[in-house]
Each structure stands twice: as C-alpha cells, then as structure tokens.
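Field reference: "sequence" (input) and "structure" (output). Example, Triosephosphate isomerase:
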Amino acid sequence: MQAPILAANWKMQLDIAESAALAKKIANELPRGNGTVILCPTVAAMPAVSLAVSGREDILLGAQDCHNQTKGTFTGATSPAVVAELGCTYVIVGHSERRQLFGETDEVVAAKVAAAVAQGLIPILCVGETADERKKGESETVVTRQLTTALASVPPEAPCIVAYEPLWAISHGAPHPATKAEVTPILKQITTLLEKRSATPVLYGGSVLPDNVQEFVTPDAFAGALIGGASLTVESFLGIVATARRTYAI
C-alpha cells in the first residue's frame, strides 16, 4: 500500500449503472501516479465496477462490509470469502453507520476484522467518537477501546488500515468540519496504539473535500482518506486524489 491511500465509499448512493459509469469515468480520467486508489461500491455493483476499471491495475476494489462467518444461515449477509472471490483487496469494517444504525458492537467488529484477515483481505477498520462522547471528554477512551478490541486477535504483521472518523465532523450532522489541530491528538494516540503495527496506515474520514484534503493528508499527518459524498462525482474525487498526490510528492 503506497500513500496517499484514497478510498471512495459510495455507500448506498448509486445504482449498478451509476456505479459502473462513475468507475469508468475514473478509470478513463485518473492519471497514473503515486498512491493507492480504492473504490468501494455496493456488493451488487461490484462485478460491473470491476469490469469498468479492468486494465487499471492501480485502481483496487473494496467492499463496504462483510460478515464474520464465511458460511451459514445469515440472511442478507455477505461472506468475506465472497468479497474476496469478487476481486476485492479491501473491506471496510466498523464504519460508524454500521455501529450506529445496525448496532455493531466492538466485539462484532473485531470478529469481522479477524474474518477478513483470514480471507486475505485488508480491513479498513473505522474508529471514532460521537459528538456527545467528545463533549464528555471520552474521545481517547472510546477510540482506544474500539482499536484495541478490533485488533486484539490480529497478528501484528497482518496488513490493515485504520480510518479515523470523528462523527462530530461528518457532514450530515456536523456544525462544522474538523480542523487538523482538533484531530491531531487522536491521530497521535492511534499512532501510539499502533506502535507494534508500524506499517499500518491511518486515514482520515471526516467530511473530506477537494478544498480541505491538503490539511489532513500529508506525510506528517494522515496517510490518506476515506471519502464519502465527495467521491460520488468524478470531478471532486479526482480533485482530492490530485491534491493528496501533490502533498505526498513534496
């Protein structure tokens, strides 16, 4: 994994045709360069997106979630083995929406991380505190708990990515985007916790935009970004990639 790592999380915002069209535009217009570009469409759109980016070995695929079992009576779930079979290299695990909307606990997230690693996938482990937890001064406690629980059974040498999502700075409910100064203490804490996993990159995932990515994605800060809404148009996503590449080339 070469920094900067730019992962586009399309969530459930695009249908199959829209996903394929966006992927095709990105494949056609993205200049080759430093860094790692990851597209995370829905599982249903994965084959179409894979076809759209064929020939671009520098554009990799990731799933938005997976189950913690490879087979079983789990209606509607996606096996990590199937995620790997679809050609994914990465899988997002523990996203704030999964934790909040689907009630995923730290223990569930930990099981998913372990299952992903067992299938040869690279988990993009999301951690982060809510606005209420931040207000109570619990940011470090929450992030430490999430991170240590999720990685407890994962060997230090296993490839993994951590994405810090400050929920209080995410666009759909945030009064204002975060500043680098506000998130740096947590970045330092995460880096310390990952001391035995020195090869684990840390991404930023708090309302990343073309005009603020250079504040967070730099060699002395985050190794990349997990991008939501701004990855849904080719112009904004390629703008983020171009800016991040420049900051890492300096």
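The two ends are 19 Å apart (CA to CA).
The chain has a mean pLDDT of 95.
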